[in-house]
From TrEMBL:
Lineage: Eukaryota, Metazoa, Chordata, Craniata, Vertebrata
Keywords annotated in UniProt: Glycoprotein, Membrane, Repeat, Sialic acid, Signal, Transmembrane, Transmembrane helix
Protein name, entry field: Golgi apparatus protein 1
Molecular function, one GO term: fibroblast growth factor binding
Residues annotated as transmembrane: 1058-1081
Organism in which the protein naturally occurs: Lates calcarifer (Barramundi)
Length: 1100
């Protein structure tokens, strides 16, 4: 203990006998039973005045030079002290010199000389040996001290916390109070710090010159210089190491009673009365009370500065805090926090090292006493409350504090200001501080956060126990919700920025995943780091293993995966909470997304510009997007926006903890439900658009088709290109009636889902959207993209489209007619009718089925109208009627192969093939289409030619399709484009009030044709008459589809009588044959009955 400088407590013993000096000290001779000395009644609330009257200075000096009486001399009898004694000290203390000394501390030079004489005479030690005889024997260190040099009492002062003997305890307490009144009375202190006192200009050290610095100010000056030195990079006047140790040792010895820190005592006298009047001195209680009120408005600046200096000393050496050192003494030894011989003593004693070591033990589940954890909590809160207690932050962040955060030092606001702007070196210092304070374990440690979020915690997180680590997680879950307040939002994000950069700062994550991290990521202890696996890389390692399949190797435990998903959900709220994303994408964020500052917009912006990002950023954004495709709940903002839809339509999928893209698929399928709001719709559509950039961004598609993509579509990355590649392969295999499909069954199923999703929004098909952008802005500026409304608008405006757009729309219609499931509008509008009429129909024959049931009384009017539109579309070009095209497929390559050979796949063949068919059909079908071939192309003219010449068509399949067209046109004039064009004016004049459908408008025109009073347009009249003839022909040759149709055909046939006669004749013949057969069987039966029985043998 002598290495740190002890108080050389030597009392003057002028007389030989102890009895005499005992009377001077107010103690009785030890010849009889020891009695406790008369303790001073001076209360902590009654400090003496700071300065004595100047007039008493001479008297004090004279009193000091007068010879002292050997026995019975009392300080109260000195003339220089009498006035102050009467004014300041209780009367019952006047007879006790030590009580008077304590009462009149630092009042007069007479008192100072008296104390100096006490501490320079080695005979004083004999009193301590008598008073503390049993205590010395118990304390080994003190019993071994060399006698006669004054070190015995110094040792007793060091161990005063272990003294149980009442008389000795009182005696040492009085001596401690006297010694700490002046730095020159402390053993060895002046020798070790003499040079530093002069260099720092902390006051005079000449014994003859006594000023205000002699009463604690010198030590305070050195303490400030010590803490200031730690906050400066260039140490102009460094304090010697032995003096540093002496300063910290003095602070440590004064840690239990704030009276012993003279500078703080005088600075905080009034504040102690104001805030801590009922706090008993001793065991550091007054210090802690004052610390807790440090930032109160009523706290004086002088006291606040003194308290800050004391706290800074504690941060340099935890032993300066009596309560912390006492409470955690055994735990430090148990957790081996003081046995690292590789660390210098200065670092080992730092508060941050102590906290990190003990926090590591707590996080590992090792026992740490509740008393120690309580002290740790107080000092962790203290570090977060005042940034100046961390010298690294003061050193690295001085410029930022002055420029951005000045005046915010109270209640942790400066620290949060630094968190907000934290980058580079200061970020490292902040990260170290936050790891030491560990606010993730208890939000109350961060006072600024606690005060800002109090209302949110009381409402949104009231079900969670106060101080539970889940409070922070609860606050994150309510980020950007109505319950969150702005100030809390800012403080929370500022703290989470640093917690997200070290996985260990989330105590729940660390608890659940420490085993997995050690097994899979080769991590070390809580407060240990590795260059190969820094803290920021550990979480990346964990989430890579979190989404592995069993075939891919080792996976996380279930509990750890749940926590990893929770962190991913939180990080998705703000790009700043994803360290890797922010690090690699800082340049791209500034380049592409500087204006996207709203919640969630930055990540969306990066996804939109994925092709433009630098390689490192593109990889990070791609990996995150791929992860979202598997677990869309990572996008917490989207999930919140879609909550109504999820609850109404997708709750079963959402409740499944193992999400494999099902939830997003459900949201897409229900994108147009009434519960869908604009935010959710925009978010889902955006994610669909992002998925188009890379097929890996669609988890289910990737898992179902990755092998097919590698085999059939190598080197293709964009999802839309992959879908086209695979769907083309499927289509070719189907058309060619291949024995075995090259695309696997599971991929074909998922491919169908992707095709259906793409058909809903033109933006999901870049090959269609890009050529039609100008047409969209020109022809459909106010039409929504969703629900295939934009595609429908372009179809209706097809004749006005640009050439490229027209080609793409025609190709789209061709695909939709071949596969009606891809016709989003048709499937949406007729969804219920398909369930009613076409449940057993093949998916590719849905439109054909709907057409057959179009005139049913149960048909929905909207669906019927949509079917009519599709019929009109089919009749504008033979290729849009796949059934007709298939029936006549032999003629197209036979007569028009030269056109097909010259054609480009991207160019539209409309017109050329039709013209070819006109010419060839004219030649081959007995000049059926000569007029049409000679005329310019008109919409539906080939079909018109075939209808007119129905009876002359030889191919049965082709004839059947033409009959179907005639049957359909009879039901609605809109299906017959030639007739509709010819009769457009007459419809407007005579049938405007007639509702389309069920042949009503056609009946109206027929009635007008028969009414001689009505004059129709010549072309309309001619076409109507042609239709009557066509229907008559069709009735003659069309095959009967049922018994009723057969009966009608028989009754309307010219050979009706002949047919009926033949039927009657056939019935008669059958009757006669039956009658004859009956007669024969009857005679055979009679003969069998009349036959005599056979003779039997005699049994005998």
């Amino acid at each position: 203990m002598a290495a740190y400088g002890r108080p050389q407590l030597l009392l003057l013993l002028p007389c030989v006998c102890l009895c005499g000096f005992g009377s001077v000290l107010g103690l009785k001779a030890p010849s009889g039973p020891a009695e406790p000395p008369n303790p001073p009644v001076l209360r902590a609330a009654d400090p003496p005045v700071k300065d004595a009257p100047a007039a008493a200075a001479a008297a004090a000096a004279a009193g000091a030079s007068q010879p002292r009486r050997a026995t019975g001399w009392k300080l109260s009898e000195e003339e220089a002290c009498r006035e102050d004694l009467t004014r300041l000290c209780p009367k019952h203390t006047w007879t006790n010199n030590l009580a008077v000394l304590e009462c009149l501390q630092d009042r007069r030079e007479l008192l100072w000389n008296y104390k100096l004489n006490l501490t320079t005479d080695p005979k004083f030690e004999s009193v301590a040996m008598e008073v503390c005889k049993s205590t010395i024997a118990e304390i080994k260190e003190c019993n071994e001290e060399e006698r006669g040099r004054g070190y015995l009492v110094s040792c007793l002062v060091d161990h005063r916390g272990n003294i149980s003997e009442y008389q000795c305890n009182q005696y040492i307490t009085k001596m401690t109070s006297i010694i700490f009144s002046d730095y020159r009375l402390i053993c060895g202190f002046m020798d070790k710090c003499k040079e530093d006192i002069n260099n720092m200009r902390c006051g005079s050290i000449n014994v003859g010159h006594k000023d205000v610095h002699s009463q604690g100010e010198v030590i305070a000056c050195l303490e400030k210089a010590l803490v200031r030195e730690a906050e400066q990079q260039d140490h102009v006047r460094p304090i010697k190491e032995e003096c540093q140790k002496a300063i910290l040792r003095v602070a440590e010895l004064s840690s239990d009673d704030f009276h012993l820190d003279r500078h703080l005592y005088f600075s905080c006298r009034d504040d102690r009365e104001r805030f801590c009047q009922n706090t008993q001195a001793g065991e550091g209680k007054v210090y802690k009370c004052l610390f807790n009120h440090k930032f109160e408005e009523a706290m004086s600046e002088k006291c606040r500065d003194a308290l800050t200096t004391r706290q800074k000393l504690i941060s340099q050496d935890y032993k300066v805090s009596y309560s912390l050192a006492k409470a955690c003494k055994l735990d430090l030894r148990k957790q081996r926090c003081s046995l690292d011989t590789n660390l210098p003593r200065a670092r080992e004693a730092r508060l941050s090292y102590l906290l990190l070591c003990l926090e590591a033990a707590v996080h590992r589940g090792r026992p740490v006493s509740g008393e120690c954890q309580g002290e740790m909590l107080d000092y962790r809160r203290m570090l977060m409350e005042d940034f100046s207690l961390s010298p690294e932050i003061v050193l690295h962040c001085r410029t930022e504090i002055e420029a951005h955060c000045s005046g915010l030092h109270r209640k942790g606001r400066t620290l949060h200001c630094l968190m907000r702007i934290g980058r580079g070196d200061r970020s490292t210092a902040l990260q170290t501080l936050i790891q030491s304070a560990d606010p993730g374990a208890d939000y109350r440690i961060d006072r600024a956060l606690n005060e800002a979020c109090e209302s949110v915690i009381q409402t949104a997180c009231k079900h969670i126990r106060t101080g539970d680590p889940m409070i922070l997680s609860c606050l994150m879950e309510h980020l950007y919700t109505e319950k969150m307040v702005e100030d809390c939002e800012h403080r929370l994000l500022e703290l989470q920025y640093f917690i997200s950069r070290d996985w260990k700062l989330d105590p729940i994550l660390y608890k659940k995943c420490q085993g997995d991290a050690a097994r899979l990521c080769h991590t070390h202890g809580w407060n240990e780091t590795s260059e190969l696996m820094p803290p920021g890389a550990v979480f990346s390692c964990l989430y890579r293993h979190a989404y592995r399949t069993e075939e891919q190797g080792r996976r996380l435990s279930r509990d750890c995966k749940v926590e990893v998903q929770r962190i991913l959900h939180q990080r998705a709220l703000d790009v700043k909470l994803d360290p890797e994303l922010q690090k690699r994408c800082m340049t791209d964020l500034g380049k592409w997304c500087s204006e996207k500052t709203d919640t969630g917009q930055e990540l969306e912006c990066l996804q939109d510009h994925l092709e433009d990002l630098v390689s490192a950023c593109r990889d990070v954004v791609g990996n995150l997007t791929e992860l979202e495709s598997e677990d869309i709940q990572i996008d917490a903002l989207l999930i919140r926006a879609c909550e109504p839809v999820i609850q109404a339509h997708c709750h079963d999928v959402a409740d499944n903890q193992i999400d494999t893209g099902d939830l997003m698929e459900c949201l897409v399928q229900n994108k147009h439900q009434k519960e869908m709001n604009d935010k959710c719709s925009v978010g889902v559509t955006h994610f669909q658009l992002v998925q188009m950039k890379d097929f890996r961004f669609s988890y289910k598609f990737k898992m179902s088709c990755k092998e097919d993509v590698l085999r059939l579509c190598p080197n293709i990355k964009k999802k839309v290109d992959v879908v086209i590649c695979l769907s083309t392969t499927v289509r070719n295999d189907t058309l060619q009636d291949a024995r075995e499909q090259r695309v696997s069954l599971k991929c074909r199923k998922q491919l169908r889902v992707e095709e259906l999703e793409m058909s809903e929004d033109i933006r999901l098909e870049p090959e269609l959207y890009d050529p039609c952008k100008s047409d969209i802005s020109r022809l459909c500026p106010n039409v929504n993209f969703g629900n295939a409304q934009m595609i429908e608008c372009l179809k209706e405006q097809k004749k006005q489209l640009s050439q490229r757009c027209h080609q793409r729309i025609f190709r789209l219609q061709e695909v939709e007619m071949t596969d009606p499931e891809l016709d989003y509008q048709l499937m949406r509008v007729c969804k219920q009718m398909i369930k009613r009429f076409c449940t057993e129909a093949d998916a590719r024959n849905v439109l054909q089925c709907l057409k057959q049931n179009k005139n049913s009384e149960l048909m929905d009017p909207k669906c019927k109208q949509m079917i009519t539109k599709r019929q009109i579309t089919q009749n504008t070009d033979y290729r849009l009627n796949p059934v007709l095209r298939k029936a006549c497929r032999a003629d197209i390559p036979k007569f028009c192969q030269s056109i097909l050979n010259k054609a480009n796949e991207d160019s539209e063949l409309e017109g050329q093939v039709i013209a070819c068919l006109k010419l060839k059909y004219a030649d081959q079908i007995s000049r059926l289409c000569v007029e049409e071939a000679a005329a310019q192309e008109q919409t539906g003219q080939v079909e018109e030619c075939l209808k007119v010449n129905l009876l002359k068509i030889k191919q049965e399949a082709c004839k059947k399709e033409v009959l179907n067209m005639l049957k359909e046109s009879k039901a609605d004039i809109f299906v017959d484009p030639v007739l509709h064009t010819a009769c457009a004016l007459d419809l407007k004049h005579h049938c405007a009030a007639i509702t389309p459908g069920r042949g009503r408008q056609m009946s109206c025109l027929m009635e007008a044709l028969q009414d001689k009073r009505v004059r129709l347009q010549p072309e309309c009249k001619k076409r109507l008459q042609d239709r009557i003839d066509m229907w008559s022909y069709a009735a003659k040759v069309a095959p009967a589809e049922g018994f009723s149709d057969l009966a009608v055909q028989v009754m309307t046939s010219p050979s009706k009588n002949y047919i009926l006669f033949m039927i009657a004749l056939s019935v008669c013949v059958l009757f006669l044959v039956g009658l004859l057969c009956g007669r024969i069987t009857k005679r055979v039966t009679r003969e069998l009955k009349d036959r005599p029985p056979l003779a039997t043998e005699n049994p005998h």
